[in-house]
């Protein structure tokens, strides 16, 4: 099925929300909703969102497995942390990840 895509400002999208949800669910028609030039979101059906999450998890799992395999072959150096704080600091997460 071919998908189509529209783009609306947040005020216009708010006034058409019921229609936009129906189009996303029944017509697989995506809508980008813009609050500003830098704040945008895409309205898609729950089914498409679940598919996106599934595919993202599969990709992340494959990446982790590939890194584990590379480490097992000695191609990737592993870092060992002695504390959660040390790992968070190294990953640039600081105090926000507690």
TrEMBL record:
SUPFAM superfamilies associated with the record: YefM-like (SSF143120)
User: Entry's InterPro entries?
Assistant: Antitoxin_Phd/YefM, YefM-like_sf
Q: What does this protein do?
A: Antitoxin component of a type II toxin-antitoxin (TA) system.
Q: Which family does it belong to?
A: Belongs to the phD/YefM antitoxin family.
Q: What is this protein called?
A: Antitoxin
């Amino acid at each position: 099925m071919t998908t189509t895509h529209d783009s609306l400002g947040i005020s216009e999208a708010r006034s058409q929300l019921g229609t936009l949800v129906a189009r996303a669910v029944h017509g697989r028609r995506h809508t980008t909703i813009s609050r500003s030039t830098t704040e945008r979101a895409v309205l898609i059906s729950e089914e498409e969102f679940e598919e996106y999450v599934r595919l993202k998890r599969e990709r992340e799992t494959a990446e982790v497995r590939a890194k584990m395999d590379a480490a097992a072959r000695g191609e990737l150096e592993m870092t060992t942390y002695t504390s959660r704080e040390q790992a968070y600091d190294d990953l640039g997460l600081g105090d926000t990840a507690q």
